[in-house]
Amino acid sequence: xxxxxPGADPADTRKAxxxxxxxxxxxxxxxxxxxxxxxxxxxxxxxxxxxxSAVCAVMLLRHLGMQIQVDEFIDNFLPQSxxxxxxxxxxxxxxxxxxxxxxxxxxxxGCYPGAMVRALNECFAQKGMLYRAEDATGIRTTExxxxxxxxxxxxxxxxTEDLQLPRLELSWTIKETDRKVNWYANTMCALLTGYGxxxxxxxxxxxxxxxxxVNRKLAVKRHAELGKRTVLVRxx
Length: 236
Known about the structure:
CATH architecture: Alpha-Beta Complex
Number of domains: 1
């Protein structure tokens, strides 16, 4: 993916409510509009090899003004559960309830919006911040941009690494419900921070953390292939 390089002459730059800068600018073809929320990027390497969702959550929390470390968020707020064999059957948690494994363990997996919503809301409550996280799975990306980015709040957005096709890694059974979970090896959470007419902008938590602008149609397609999993945060 190419790094995001907006036009050289931003039309308007202002402070976002959370304390970071938000930039509106015009560039490229006539009338093209870009917006990007500037956040502090954090690399998940080497400490949190499976912690893309936790790292993105902390980038979001810091943008909102919270002083918090990734380890604190993982250890104090993120629900986690191991995956293990019992009687020849691989059992694991519902990823919408708990992180499958540990963000510290490279052999672990990850979680979905429900688990992250629980962690974020417990964090907001304990820290006394007037925000509420919501599971926005299934909501169209255009609505997420309007409800989140246009209000200067980044969005947790599940895609695949390098926007490649989802690659099935393994399946496990949720013991409580007997439901099967298919986990894709290249699943990751990115922090959606901006958009152009035909692009989306992400703060990426990968080994070379940074800001990347990608083709919107492809990102939305990969997002849909993973179930349109998303977390939206609102002020209350």
